[in-house]
Amino acid sequence: MNNLPKIFIIGSVCKKTQSFKSGGFTLIELLLIMASISLLGALTVPLSVRFLQGQILDETANGILETLRRAQNSAIYQKNDSAYGVAFFPGYYVLFQGNSYSSRIAGADEIFELGGNTSISGIVEVVFSKLAGAPSAVGVLIASLSSVSDSRSISISAEGKIEK
Asked: What percent of the chain has a predicted confidence (pLDDT) above 90?
């Protein structure tokens, strides 16, 4: 007959394994999640702070620009038959009525606070002449924050053009 070996299956061995897996997380999974959240926070917080500081600078520059234009328009339209100007000090600036800050009508002052650690450098005082609106000082105002190297510039030309 045939010389092939005969294979007999005597029985099958079945092992039933019991799973100890529960519905929770392992310690390693929790550590990975915490590390991911920490990394995400470490990356987004500085960007958010920088964005906020940029917004503060933009608001400050826009406020100064608006105040300078108000002073110029008041002088051009000869409001109260007077010249108008803006003077800059540490922490605030003043819209005033008169030919200079020292000879102004103090009761007409409008004081504007600078937000945060904002500082203004450049022109200290500018007065716009009646009717023509010509500025007494030309140059660049720079609004900056002490905590960042970012700044915003506002230029005043001899022709009276005020722009950011």
From this structure: 51
List CB contacts of 106: < 8 A, sequence separation 6 or more: 96
Coil/strand/helix, residue 134? coil
Long-range contacts: 102-105, Cβ < 8 Å, 24+? none
**Dist CA 31 CA 19 (whole Å):** 23
Contact, 114 vs 126, CB < 8 A?
A: no
Q: pLDDT (tens digit, 9 = 90+) per residue, 94-103?
A: 999 999 999 9
Query: In angstroms, what CA-CA distances link 152 with 143, 160, 162?
Result: 5, 19, 14
Residue ranges and CATH numbers for the domains of the chain are 54-163 (3.55.40.10)
Residue 85: CB atoms within 10 A of its CB come to 27
pLDDT of 45 reads: 77
